[in-house]
Structure formats: structure tokens, C-alpha cells
Amino acid sequence: MANAHAERARSCSGVQLRPFPYPYRCMLAICSDLDGTPHRRAYLEIARFLNTEEMTPMGSGVGLEVGNSIHFRAKTRRFAYWSTDDAGREMVRMLIRSGHIDCLHSFGERIHTRDEAKRAVDELRRHDCHLEVWVDHGGAVTNFGPDIMRGHGDEIGHPAYHADATVDYGIQYVCLGRGTSIMGQDIPAKLRGILTLRHPIASGRTLLKEVAKQSLARIGNTKYAMHASNRVLRPSVLRDGQRIYEFMRCNPHWAGVGSYAEGRYIGNVLTADRLQRLVTRGGTCILYTHLGRVDDPAVPFDAKAVGAFRHLAEESRAGKILVATTRRLLGYRRAVCELVSTSWRDGNVVCIDLNTQRSDNNWLGPLDVADLAGVTFYVADAHATCLTVNGEKVRGIRRNPPDHTGRPSVSLPWPRLEFPAI
Ligand SMILES: [Zn+2]
Known about the structure:
Number of strands: 21
Strand content: 15-25%
Bound molecules: zinc ion
Number of domains: 2
CATH architecture of the largest domain: Alpha-Beta Barrel
Largest sheet: 6 strands, mixed
Strand order of the largest sheet: 5-6-7-8-11-10
């Protein structure tokens, strides 16, 4: 037995974890803050255009997978959970259950107290609506971010303290307002692509800001530590001591992280050359934007935006860019970082077992098996490989032909989210 165990603990030669699900070469989530969305009809048309191939005011949908965020009470007459009507609330609940609303964008500008926050969490729980991603929102007192977002949601004793209830509800991935101009994370930080000769002063300023963030991080500044490593995700601790994962978003526009992050400008941000750069470098990108900030609520995206999304859909269908919701991208990236796998030879077959219970970097406990979706291993012979998860055979294993590197692989399926009939 001891020998058998020693044999299993070794990794077979030729077995290697692929960074992205086959056949994709990079991964992109469009992480949209809902503030500014005029009403539920605009919110729904944006979701239908991006996630289905149905007819919409912008023409037929592009059939990607793009999530959205929700909060509970906005400052002005804008779309939010408590401010919309019953049909709007039912729409939100359906989209949370289907995975197309995956982020809580703070509780909103006009939620100030712990009791109000808990009422919102109770409402979600009561309707079986689970969210695991939190994104701080400019000016919200319920924010978690201590530096950029100046929140108080995780300060024990503050009237807005709610982190105990919110983390208990299920929030585990948190954006504390950190953003970068570098297109592509989980690869070395490269500044090329920011400077634009047609806009030398503004893009030069953006470049210098990014250089400053990198330099400050290298001399120990904690505010910008994520920028130096250029990691999309890192283990972190809220001020009340609770463990979470923090993630960083990206806006690669030459005018800077805070500029042009709106639906009316998305065609200027999601350009073909930036997408190509993401593909070539093999990066992971969580794109910061506000898709609901548009000029015409009846036709949310203009021709340039529609063209950009159609191009993104082509790149996705060509197997280059995997477009996923923020929650799915984060779960996948966490899984590939933490997963423990063992492989061994059994006659002519190579067996690979993925263990979600064991982990060298088990910050939040065992991995969710659902987050292994798409996990891909390069192998010598895809037809002579067996794949198990916690010792159980994987149903529907994919045996993939050689990709752009010339190597065959095996994968767990990456199921598509199903858009609900609303
Ligand atoms: Zn916001």
C-alpha cells in the first residue's frame, strides 16, 4: 500500500494543468456596476442582447455570457431592487438564480444601517437568491474598502457594520475598488498598450499613474500591492477578521481606469487590438464598466458598442476568449490556483484525480466541485486518460485534439448558463 501511495503522489510526465478551459487562450468577465441604469426594461434589454440570440432593439443578441450587479436603493430615480416594481424584483430574482446577476454592488447609496443591510440579505435568502461576489460602490457607507472606497461595512461597532451577516450569507469574493489599466491579469504586468500616440498627454498620464502604482507597491505600499503581482485574486481579511478573496478589475482605456467605464463608451474600450492583446498574452480580465449608463434607454448600445460585442462573440466562438460571468471567472481562477491533483499510470491509461478537499492554499475551505468546470489537463494521449474528482469518475469528460500549442488535452465540461424566460 505504501508503494501504491508513493506511486499515486507522483505526477505522470506529460500531465500539465492548462491555464484556461480548452480551447480558450484567455478569459474575460464584463463586471458591470448597475448604477445609472434608468429602469428595469433597459437592464433586461442589455442582458438579453448580451446573453441570448433573441431579437432585441440592438438586433439579434450576441449569445455571450455576461453578468450584472444589483443593489437595493439608489440615490436618484434609478434602477435598484427596492425602487423598481414587483416585476422588476421578480426579474432580478430570476437572473440571480440563473447566475446572470452575480454581484452585489454594495447595498446602494441610500442604505445606511446594519438593519437595512440585514433586511436586504434576508430578502435574498427568503427567495433562495445566492450571491457570492461583492463590489464596493462609490460613496456607499456599507462598502468594505478601507482606503480607496472609504467604507464602514466591516468596522465592528459602526452603524453600517454588516460584514458578519453578509459573509455568513455567502459573500466570499470582494472588490475593494482596486483597478488597473493593464489589460490582462495573472500574467506579468506589462505597460505596453496604454500609451496611445493619438492621445499622448492623457494616455501618458494614465501610463505614469500605472508606473507609480507599480513603484509604490515595490517599496511596500499596501494600497497598490495587487498591482505589482498583477494577480486578479488574492486572499485577504476584512477589518472584522473575516477571510475573503479580494479581486482587482481592469479598464484598459487610455484615459485611465475611471474613464469611459460606461455602456455609452464600451465600443471604445472593448477594441479589437485590446482583445487581441489579451489573447496573445493569455491574460485574465475582469472588465470594470457601467453598462446601464447609456444615451438612449430604449436602445442601450450604439452601433460601435454593438460592433464591439459582435466581434467579442466571434472571438469567443473561435475558441480564443472565454467570456464568463465574474463569479464563474473568479471560481475558475481560484480552482486552478488551489487545486491539488495527482496522476498515475495504470497499464496504458493515465489516471488524473482532482482533490477539492486538500489544498496547499486553502484560504476559504474546500473548493466547490462546480468551480472545476472547464478544468483542462494536457496529456500525452487524450483517449488513454481517465479523470476523477475526489475519486469519482467524471461524467462527460471531453477529449480534445491538439490546441495551438500542439498538445492534446482532457477537460471537465464547461456548461453554459441558461438564460431564464422573462
Ligand atoms: Zn457603483
